[in-house]
Amino acid sequence: MVRNRLRILSVVALPLALLACGTREEDRNLDSLDNELVEAGSGSANASDPAMTAALHDQIMVDPALAQHANADSVRPPAQPYSGGVPPTGIAQPPGSTPGTAGASTSETIKSTPAPGADCPACTAARESLTLGALASRQKDRRTSACAGAMRYSASWADRLPVDVPLYPGARVIEAAGANTNACALRAVSFSTNARLQTVVDWYYTRVTNTGFTAEHQSDGTQHTLGGTRDRDGGAYVLFLSPRRDGGTDVDLIANNGN
């Protein structure tokens, strides 16, 4: 009788004990999920999704083709530098005059420049010179070429040209350089104007010949040069003129005896 009771108790108690020691599948899944979340939050890469880890830690990929379209509407710098030229007051155009008109700032009668010579070695030098200093160094006048190495660039040199070889009225200065030493007073300016090339050549021809300079006109068919010297003070100048597509003129001016 006693043995029968023990057998019954064993049969009933054993499943209860196993049930108490075991863990339900739902509880195991919840615990595992909690642990994974805790480990992922602590920065453990082993417990997180590899794809998620790669997405968070890898470098951002950029498509160069699409990057070129970024900031399409942003404000951008100008295509060319702003003009810093300040024309000398002696050649300022009077009110009501047409911008770029020859003789606008002088009472002199404009002379017609003689036809250019066919040979133009100075035109070749201008095309091969990348800077104003290089262009000055290739001039025939020895004072000009010797001072080229001392030139420094600044827009302020455009306002220090010789009085007899000034900046053209209404000119827009692009670049300027100069040298001021005991032996050098060299000035060089690149500028543009809306006036036609022949108008600019005639204006300078009138100005320099009336102040005692010689004037030699040369052209290679496209570019023109006008240059000369003056014996009384050793003055020298040269202009390189090229027509623009819009009808205006680009000019490089080099002169010694600057202010």
What is this entry, summarized?
With 259 residues, the protein is of the alpha+beta class. The protein has helices at residues 2-21, 25-41, 50-57, 64-67, 121-128, 132-137, 142-147, 197-210; strands at residues 152-153, 172-180, 185-193, 216-219, 224-230, 235-243, 249-255.
Could you walk me through the main structural features you see in this protein, from its secondary elements to its overall organization?
The structure is a single chain. The chain has 259 residues and is an alpha+beta fold. Strands 1-2-3-7-6-5-4 form a 7-stranded antiparallel β-sheet, sandwiched between helices. Helices cover 32% and strands 18% of the residues. It has helices at 2-21, 25-41, 50-57, 64-67, 121-128, 132-137, 142-147, 197-210, and strands spanning 152-153, 172-180, 185-193, 216-219, 224-230, 235-243, 249-255. The chain starts with a helix and ends with a strand.
